[in-house]
Amino acid sequence: MSEVLHSLLDRTNFDLPTKATLGARIPWQQSAVEWVKDVIDRLNGRLVVIDYSVALTSELSQRPWRDWLRTYAGHEKGAHYLRNVGLQDITNDVCLDQIIATCGQPDSVRSQSQFLQLWGIDELVEEGKRIWNEESARPGLLAMKMRSRISEAEALLETSGVGGFTVMEWAKLQP
């Protein structure tokens, strides 16, 4: 496996950075864009995409590439992206402008916290607190699950941690 660098000056339908430091890199997310477009073209329902993202590709040119291009193996940070091929996942932030330029504006773009609140996480947490308070003196499995729900929700709503995802939604119903 090897890295192939390309000039994108004549290949993009999104804005490239006007100023970038020497050696700056940005991801060209052609496969992701094609996948989203293919799903939207065939969609009869809702496409929900959940991932780390940036609004503009140019934002990544200002960050060290090892900050936005990451590897993971066994739920831990992995090695250099060209090492251990096939034994680690390679991921990077999704550039919303690249997807929007080809696929159109999503029906909604929300933080993970906003998405979970829309779908009732606050009510689930309140239920968890109520059950925990009622049964904490002699907690059974249900009470322990409810206590866990509370701390898990806190983590999922924390925007600087595992709750830092963006949720994009496209809806299209066929006649």
Automatic annotation (TrEMBL):
<dbReference type="InterPro" id="IPR003788">
    <property type="entry name" value="NDUFAF7"/>
</dbReference>
<keyword id="KW-0489">Methyltransferase</keyword>
<dbReference type="InterPro" id="IPR038375">
    <property type="entry name" value="NDUFAF7_sf"/>
</dbReference>
<dbReference type="GO" id="GO:0005739">
    <property type="term" value="C:mitochondrion"/>
</dbReference>
<dbReference type="GO" id="GO:0032259">
    <property type="term" value="P:methylation"/>
</dbReference>
<dbReference type="InterPro" id="IPR029063">
    <property type="entry name" value="SAM-dependent_MTases_sf"/>
</dbReference>
<dbReference type="Pfam" id="PF02636">
    <property type="entry name" value="Methyltransf_28"/>
</dbReference>
<dbReference type="GO" id="GO:0008168">
    <property type="term" value="F:methyltransferase activity"/>
</dbReference>
<keyword id="KW-0808">Transferase</keyword>
<keyword id="KW-0496">Mitochondrion</keyword>
<protein>
    <submittedName>
        <fullName>Unannotated protein</fullName>
    </submittedName>
</protein>
